[in-house]
Amino acid sequence: MTRVTEEQILDALKTVVDGDKDIVSLGMVSGLQVKDGHVAFAIEVAAERGPQLEPLRQQAEQVVHALPGVISATVVLTAERQAAGASPAHRSPGDTPLGPPGAGGNGGAPAAPQARPQAAPQAAPQAAPQAAAPLMPGVNAIVAVASGKGGVGKSTVAVNLALGLAAGGHAVGVLDADIYGPSMPRMLGISGKPVSTDGRRLEPMENFGVKCMSMGFLVDEETPTIWRGPMVTSALQQMMRDVNWGALDVMIVDMPPGTGDAQLTMAQQVPLAGAVIVSTPQDIALLDARKGLNMFRQVDVPVFGFIENMSYFTCPHCGERSEIFSHGGARREAERLGIDFLGEIPLDIAIRETSDSGRPIVVSQPDSAQAKTYRAIADKVWEKVSQVLAARETSTPKIIVQ
Ligand code: ADP
């Protein structure tokens, strides 16, 4: 296969002009990475010009994508030239994406690949709940749904929890941050891509009264897994800041499974009010759940509790309950660790069928025992959220004008 070189890419980019000069001569191209036909770079612009330069971003993406040997091209606009806040030395080119992601098949993956997650276990926690204000001013509380490993039913819990909260009368959003396997669009029965009505911010997608934004909308499906971790920082920023979330009582974040760098970065970057950890009863999953607990403790995010998924099996024919795995492990572990236990969800065919087909059980069979279980968990989570909000209220310094 033809291999594309950096020189060829820069040559092609010399045809992209901003004003009377090309973007390469203007020194606007930074962080160029080429790997196995996948190309990523940033275009540095002044922050205030960001919204107008989306066509320039798209043009740059198209000329690179058209080169022989290029499989994907990912271009982001960054406000590196007007570094407000963090010092440039500590920011990656993908940290400040300005434009909405392009709607094209290749458009909009948000970060240059060398943008390493900046989390270090020792890093000072930045996730104070109050930090929600500048990013998503209308969102009252953000709750992460996490798991120590994949396949334990974290996304299924996240979607039914969100719908359970909505059933309780709350305004709810879901931010699907599972960069490795974004499943919220499918579980919420949402297809298509978000659009921007004002040319600046994306409108979230919506179904069953719940707003949703997903990594799946931003990251090109062809993006190699190895690049996804590094994209976390900017994709998250984009989903929080560049989406018109409006006023929400609570936002549920479906985290990527595991407790690695990418997850830690997220736990730091999203101003979380708290987290719930989903686990199956097997010992190994519980070990992983403990790692999840430690991760949130490291970044000072309160863990609201454990949820045991696939806890027991109820025969759909005779109703007999069998405890296939050693049921109750998560409850015991929660007690041991001094964490609340929020509930147990059975291994159940209807749960699987409904969430996998985009009609989660809380909305499609609201009178079922399973839906009641999810709603009870949602009530407990809301109780925890209310406590955090009340504490925030009393701890926020009041400014008294005399
Ligand atoms: P994760 O987000 O942890 O990777 P998912 O929520 O995607 O896991 O679930 C993995 C699979 O297990 C899905 O097919 C889902 O429908 C199924 N599943 C999740 N929870 C249950 C449950 N309680 N009973 C039966 N199947 C479930």
Primary descriptors:
402 residues; Rossmann fold; binds adenosine-5'-diphosphate; single chain; 2 domains; alpha/beta; nine-stranded mixed beta sheet; three-stranded mixed beta sheet; GMP Synthetase, Chain A, domain 3
What do these coordinates show?
With 402 residues, the chain is an alpha/beta fold. It folds into 2 domains: 74 residues, Fe-S cluster assembly (FSCA) (GMP Synthetase, Chain A, domain 3), CATH 3.30.300; 254 residues, P-loop containing nucleotide triphosphate hydrolases (Rossmann fold). Helices cover 34% and strands 20% of the residues. It has 13 helices and 14 strands. Strands 6, 7, 8, 9, 10, 11, 12, 13 and 14 form a 9-stranded mixed beta sheet that branches. A 3-stranded mixed beta sheet has the order 3-4-5, covered by helices on one side. Helix 9 links the parallel strand 11 and strand 12. The longest helix is centred in the C-terminal third of the chain and has 27 residues. The radius of gyration is 22 Å and the shape is elongated. The N and C termini lie far apart (73 Å). The structure holds adenosine-5'-diphosphate. Adenosine-5'-diphosphate (ADP) binds next to helix 4, strand 12, strand 14 and helix 11.
